[in-house]
Design a protein that fits this description.
The structure is a single chain. The protein is α+β, with helices and mostly antiparallel strands. It is elongated, with a radius of gyration of 20 Å. The chain binds a DNA duplex through loops.
Length: about 280
DNA sequence: CGTGCGGCCTGAATGC
DNA sequence: TGCATTCAGGCCGCAC
């Protein structure tokens, strides 16, 4: 489930390789991944050159010529993988195959088919409600800006962390991990948290995201970066997926509950509900 | 405004 | 062994 650190890692790996490459051939094996017909997709892409690869929230954007953008959302199980040779395995979940004039292939692979690939001009991209509605990048926020986003909400803190329109790129893993590090119960209403606690959360969130990027992201099942390398951050998990295991800080057994419909793991000792 | 649920989809894990 | 159920989760649309 690629979140900000995984998407950032993929983006960095692809941005070292793809710029300058030109699409020679595009094979659509599952058109449900696209926002247009397979034919229109191919017609618009072929002979287009990739200029840059960047990330916004959980989106990966390939800038092409003439204000055209190829945008990927990997959702839970998507992969975007560069293959330099022609000896790669064609899997039944490889939905899009892009071949370059210069060398190599870019493969969009998505077991669960939740992910998508949209071809958009600049106007369409910037007017797209999801894109336009994305909140700020957590790594670009200073503590005051972070506090401002959260302090007035009456919603539970984890719900707001997961809300892409409030802050972009956080998913279930990094919500649980940052709340654990900050010592905040995930169901705490934001407005019950004072400035110091929100500042602490701001620091914890940035720390968790940066350490995960450093570790190449988290690999649970599907995730690999743009070159096929798995991440290592799962070994550093303090909370996510550790229900019933002892807290690495205080040895209390971790508990779980549902917040915003998602499984949430926390330490009842380190993350008390009442402050 | 906030919450909760169903739907989309597949495969791994679990239950009988 | 083999079948059915449950779970995972990002995001949307909808009901309350």
């Amino acid at each position: 489930m690629p979140e900000l650190p995984e998407v950032e890692t993929i983006t960095r790996s692809l941005d070292k390789i793809l710029p300058g490459k030109v699409f020679q051939q595009v094979t659509v094996r599952y058109s449900g991944s696209l926002n247009c017909s397979s034919q229109a997709f191919k017609d618009q892409l072929i002979k287009q050159r990739i200029n840059q690869v960047w990330r916004r929230g959980k989106l990966i954007v390939l800038d092409l010529k003439e204000n055209l953008h190829l945008v990927f959302h990997l959702k839970m199980s998507g992969r975007l993988l560069y293959e330099s040779g022609s000896d790669w395995q064609l899997d039944k979940h490889s939905h899009l195959i892009f071949e370059f004039y210069e060398q190599g292939y870019l493969i969009f692979h998505d077991t669960r088919k939740f992910g998508y690939c949209s071809l958009l001009n600049s106007n369409a991209l910037y007017q797209w409600t999801y894109f336009a509605g994305l909140g700020p990048e957590p790594l670009d926020l200073n503590e005051d800006e972070f506090v401002h986003i959260f302090q007035k909400s009456r919603a539970r803190i984890k719900s707001v962390l997961l809300d892409q329109s409030k802050i972009a790129g956080i998913g279930n893993i990094y919500a649980d991990e940052s709340l654990h590090e900050a010592g905040i119960h995930p169901a705490t209403p934001c407005c019950q948290l004072d400035q110091d606690r929100l500042r602490k959360l701001s620091l914890s969130l940035k720390g968790v995201l940066l350490r995960s990027i450093q570790a190449g992201g988290t690999t649970l099942r599907d995730y690999v970066d743009g070159l096929g390398n798995p991440g290592n951050y799962q070994n550093g998990f303090m909370a996510y997926g550790r229900k019933g295991l002892p807290c690495k800080t205080c040895s209390t057994l971790l508990e779980s509950c549902k917040v915003a419909g998602r499984t949430t793991v926390y330490c009842p000792q380190c993350q008390p509900l009442s402050i």
